[in-house]
Amino acid sequence: LTRHIEREEDRQRPLDFRLIARLYECTSVCGSRRLWLLALVVIRAIQLPALTWCLAAVIRGPVTRHATAGVFQGAILFAFLALSTQIVLHFRQRLALELGEAVVCHLRSRLFRHIQRMPLRWFQQARTGRVISRMTSDMEDIRAGVQDVFYVSMVQLIQMLIAAAAMIWFDRLLFLILLVLVPVIRWINRCFHVRLSAALRNMRESWSRVTATLVESIVGIRVTQAFCRESVNIQAFSELAADHSGWNTGVLKTQGTFQPLLELNSQLVTGLLLLAGGWRVLSPDSDANVGDVVGFLFMSGLFFAPIAILGTQYHQALTAMAGAERLFRLLD
Questions:
Q1: Is the pTM of this model over 0.70?
Q2: pLDDT by residue (tens digit) across 207-239?
Q3: Is-contact 51 78, C-beta < 8 A?
Q4: Which residues, 6+ apart, have CB-to-CB distance to 218 below 8 Å?
Q5: Whole-number Cα distances in Å, 250 to 87, 99, 197, 198, 253
Q6: CA–CA distance from 323 to each of 83, 138, 193, 327 (Å)?
Q7: Which among 209, 192, 53, 194 has a CA at the least distance from the CA of 129?
Q8: Cβ neighbours for 122, distance < 8 A, ≥ 6 positions apart
Q9: Would you say 145 and 317 are in contact if contact means Cβ atoms under 8 Å apart?
Q10: In angstroms, how far apart are the furthest CA atoms of the chain?
Q11: Cβ distance 133 to 212 under 8 Å?
């Protein structure tokens, strides 16, 4: 009954903003590093659209006018921007990894101090494997959530907003066509997020049971051999391992279906935009030009590229939420 209740609680809220706020508070151990990281995230999000804008501007300007000097100047500017993006990416990733390690170190020390103060009755009732799972696998899930999910998602979201503004500037009509197709992508996201959320939380709970059974089997091996329960324990553990493998396979199947559908959908949208943009350029009553359509297509690619990345980050966020729920439940 207790196991059933825990699994039902795990399914209630895939993303809990109270847990997110508590995790963000844990990053206060590196306040200055966190501020620098936020600044680099914003710069990184601006640099990527700037690269695309520079490329589109060279095509719309010097290439269209056959100005060789302008093409060389645009290439130099593009190379400078590309180099700056790599420098910013290096320090953004480095600070994120350092921040994640600091948060995990802080939480592990806090969890160990908490366990030292627990009464003896708690140790008699608590399963050792579950406690070890909090210190190992759940903590690593939290690390991924702190150092990757928030900052990578922030870069992608800002990039999408800047790309949307640029597309409105290039061609408002094409942008309206794009908005009509956005609900299809949203529907696909919603359907698979529900399935992925349930599968992830079941997978994490099944892994906790595998870890707990393994630890207790090793600790109680004398009792097991004294009562000749080796075959019974082997059968029970095999069932738990098969159950975890089934849930893990379900997660991979759901994710493997989710991401290709998003990529296919974005490619279909790009094809439709190409047809609509070509029709506007060739139409005698339209004031659209080839340069604007090319810039719009570049920005549309930059707009759709983060969708697959955000899908992966959402997968990691659900896993981090499951680990954070278990950790804070133990600390509380």
A1: no
A2: 778 877 887 888 788 888 888 888 888 888 888
A3: yes
A4: none
A5: 39, 32, 11, 10, 5
A6: 37, 4, 18, 6
A7: 209
A8: none
A9: yes
A10: 91
A11: yes
